[in-house]
Amino acid sequence: MDFASIKAKADTYWRDLSNLEHPLIHIGMGTCGRAAGAEAVLATIESTLKDIDPLARIIKVGCIGMCYLEPIMAVRKPGRPFIYYGDLTPKKAEQILTSYLLKDDPKAEWSICTLAENSANGNGSIDGIPRFSELPMIRPQVRIALRNCGLIDPENIDEYIARGGYSGLNKALSMTPEAVIKEVKESGLRGRGGAGFPTGLKWEFARKAHGTQKYIICNADEGDPGAFMDRSLLESDPHAVLEGMVIGAYAIGASEGYIYIRAEYPLAVERLVLAIKQMRKYGLLGKNILGSGFNFEIKIKEGAGAFVCGEETALMASIEGARGMPRSRPPFPAQAGLWGKPTNINNVETFGNVSAILERDARWYASYGTEKSRGTKTFSLAGKINRTGLIEVPMGIKLEEVINDIGGGVRKGKRLKAVQTGGPSGGCIPAELLHLPVDYESLAQAGSIMGSGGMVVMDEDTCIVDMARYFLGFTKSESCGKCMPCRLGIKQMLDVVQDICDGNGQPADLELLERVCEAVQKGSLCGLGQTAPNPVKTTLRYFMPEYEKHVIEGKCPAGVCKHLFHYEIDPDSCTGCTACARKCPVGAITGEKKQPHAIDQTLCTKCGTCYQLCKFDSVMVK
Asked: Distance between CA 44 and CA 50 in Å, rounded?
């Protein structure tokens, strides 16, 4: 089947869907939606529609990015835009469907926004309901890699093709491989896995490498705490990534490719398996792809979930059946990669952008971003922020726009303390630097990295020393132990920081930490060890007074390190409401009703329940 026939079939399907004479329901069934209860909501939708309109259609879509509102459902009546509803329960979903479909009352007070068919721009409106593009979380975004997420059925290849999918591959196959590489180079796309190496240049190295057998690998081994960009993209739009892989394979001359994905992403694996089957059926994978004479196959390799396997050489060792441990470079993968053959590795988001670049063109993509960091970047917003979720913004956007405008600021009106970018390999950027543009150079200058896109927001209740201890604990557990600086150095850093958290720190420990950071960074074999000191280095750089409070004054200002603080009740502001006494799990709080209460320090376990419950700020951290 040629591409014109494939596209015509998909367009017919999409047109019929757009003109459906019955209600159409989208329900977010990504991992975030399911975790929030989407399966129970779906069951209610199915039973409710049987009574209202048995011909109504339900489509399971991926995550549209507003994870904080999951479960999310979108309802479209014929001739009208979709109306989105969030924070659903089965009962609420039933009430919405009954009200809108039977009484034409859309229950605007429960809605999020409207979104018109075939548009990510939010055209189409209903009185009293904002458009998708008008939402504060959406307005500053530019969705390229996420262009289809939450808008199509990820298990239906026709929906992807109808929205422009595989047009980029069809176009690439009409070009020479060198012209495809030139297009990617001119787009300015840099690897979105963290290192930021120019993608087109990387492809050129692999293209020019000697060897008849070459490989291309998609690195989907997402393991950063707080990061879920790759998982969400693969669950919501697997074909965008697969199309980018085929384009890359054609460009470098690879006949075989692998997707290396951790087994703990079962939904993403399931949808990739289905998508690959659909590609083969349509002649988009296998022999003589779209009649071009180009042959390419993709295999899925499920990893065991080792963070170090995000490193290229460790990842390839794992595919080869060996223990996932890195090796020194050179030779680089482009020279001698998988089974000693020339290999190119890019991450999920990079391939998702490649398919969009070939569908449009390099100039369009390069029009976004900054001079050195072109295009857009996806981030998973997590931590103490009001609007958690998956976002995509132009490179160069200010951190404060991401945190305040898109994320809605810090929860419960708390003061922002820091933003962790790049996960355990990144650094903590203090609130004072929120004016920084988000691009590779600016983040590196601040001591952090872009990483794959995890962005964790911390408020004033976060102990920065405890946070450094957490990330060191993670990297220590994930170190493969092959090289001594990483194996022993991270443990030594962790021991020192643990001592500080336990109240056993000494002033000399701070200088020791800095020296060990330098040694681990310079002496480690791979990126895990080389970047593991980043959380410590940046917190020492920006939050030294907080370290000094721990080691000199023996206090934890945030009230997190249990050995360094205790709770007290201010008798002047305590109203004697008894809320703290009733909820204290160990009965450490006593006092008469409407009289000041007190905490028995010998019984208190410092669980913080009283601190969190008190509406009068009478519980103090001392």
From this structure: 10
**Cα four-point dihedral sign 393, 394, 396, 401:** negative
**What are the pLDDT digits (tens) for 53-110?**
999 999 999 999 999 999 999 999 998 999 999 999 999 999 999 999 999 999 999 9
> What is the structure's pLDDT at 122?
46
CATH assignment of 166-366, among 3.40.50.1110, 3.40.50.11540, 3.40.50.1970, 3.30.1360.120: 3.40.50.11540
- The CATH class of 464-553 is mainly alpha
- Taking residue 274's Cβ as centre, other Cβ atoms within 10 Å add up to 15
Return the structure tokens found at 29.
């069934």
DSSP secondary structure of 282-348: TTSSBSSGGGSS--BEEEEEEE---GGGGSHHHHHHHHTTS------SSSPTTTS-GGGS-EEEEEH
Give CATH superfamily name and number for 13-134.
Glutaredoxin (3.40.30.10)
CB 620 within 8 A of CB 569: yes
C-alpha separations of 475 from 159, 170, 521, 531, 534 in Å: 41, 43, 13, 10, 11
Domain-wise residue ranges, the chain: 13-134, 166-366, 369-459, 464-553, 567-621
Q: State the Cα–Cα distance between residues 593 and 590, nearest whole angstrom.
A: 10
Whether domain 369-459 has CATH 3.10.20.600: the reply is yes
Rounded-to-integer distance, Cα 37 and Cα 88, Å = 8
φ, ψ for residue 96, nearest 5 deg: -65, -50
pTM: 0.93
Question: 373 to each of 106, 188, 425, 503, 527, how far by Cα in Å?
Answer: 43, 7, 20, 43, 21
Which among 460, 435, 539, 455 has a CA at the least distance from the CA of 496? Answer: 539
Average pLDDT, the chain: 94
> Do residues 619 and 569 touch, judged by C-beta distance below 8 A?
yes
Query: Which overall architecture, per CATH, does domain 567-621 show?
Result: 2-Layer Sandwich (3.30)
Quick one: pLDDT at residue 209? Answer: 96
What SS3 state is found at 589?
Answer: strand
**Chain centroid offset of residue 330 CA:** 31
- Residues of the chain scoring pLDDT < 70: 117-124
Rounded CA-CA distance 243/147 in Å is 14
